[in-house]
Specification:
This protein is mainly β. The protein has 2 helices and 13 strands. The strands form 3 sheets. Strands 1-9-8-12-13-6 form a 6-stranded mixed β-sheet, with no helix packed on it. Strands 4, 5, 7, 10 and 11 form a 5-stranded antiparallel β-sheet that branches. A two-stranded antiparallel sheet has the order 2-3. It is elongated.
């Protein structure tokens, strides 16, 4: 958290089929753009059942979608993403796993970080029902009402599966010094390319002189 707005991209696993009911633009021979309707979004389970006796088409779908867990497929066309936990990783400390939603301590803080320390975040999440396209998260941080960080991270496109996906962000360093210490407020949000929000959570954390005692 270095006080600067950040925007990063990360290439993640998963493929991107044309399953959304959206309009895209294409150019004709004269360079004019026109809207193209791709068609309605349908349940992935229904897509996999289509032409299932066609061996070449089945292999093509497997290559396109990867190893889809059919147990995670519902009857709805809408994908679901459940963010399970956030793990704080630091070379100086044991990993701290925080279930989502966070549980605040007696001071109202979800967690505490030592000033001037290196750390990274790791998220675990499950995708079900359908493919989620362009999943990304934002984490905005304020101190005394002033925005000090606005992190945006593209995670990628994911197929449904039983096992959780994990994403680990880049290592960062907390600000150091007496003026950096104190209470911070933050908002974490997970959305996809269609603007569907899977998690929006406000929380507080603390930057302090020393790490909190290990429980």
């Amino acid at each position: 958290m270095d006080g600067k707005d950040k925007e990063k991209e990360h290439t993640a696993s998963g493929k991107n089929p044309d399953v959304n009911d959206v309009e895209e633009e294409e150019e004709d021979e004269e360079g004019n753009k026109r809207a193209v309707v791709l068609g309605p979004q349908v349940p992935l389970k229904e897509q996999l059942e289509l032409d299932k006796d066609d061996e070449s088409l089945r292999r093509w779908k497997e290559q396109l979608l990867g190893q889809v867990d059919t147990e995670q497929l519902g009857e709805t066309a809408e994908p679901e993403v459940k963010v399970l936990n956030l793990t704080i990783l630091s070379p100086d400390r044991p990993d701290l796993v925080l279930p989502i939603p966070f549980v605040a301590d007696e001071k109202g803080y979800a967690f505490a970080l030592k000033d001037g320390s290196t750390y990274s975040f790791r998220f675990s999440f499950i995708v079900s029902n359908n493919i989620v396209s362009g999943l990304k998260y934002t984490n905005t941080v304020w101190k005394t009402g002033v925005r000090v960080e606005n992190q945006k991270m593209m995670l990628g496109t994911f197929s449904p599966q039983l096992e959780p996906y994990t994403y680990e962000g880049e290592e960062e360093t907390t600000p150091a010094g007496i003026f950096a210490r104190g209470s911070y407020s933050a908002k974490l949000k997970f959305v996809d390319d269609d603007g569907k929000c899977y998690l929006e959570m406000s929380y507080y954390f603390e930057i302090r002189k020393d790490w909190p005692a290990i429980q």
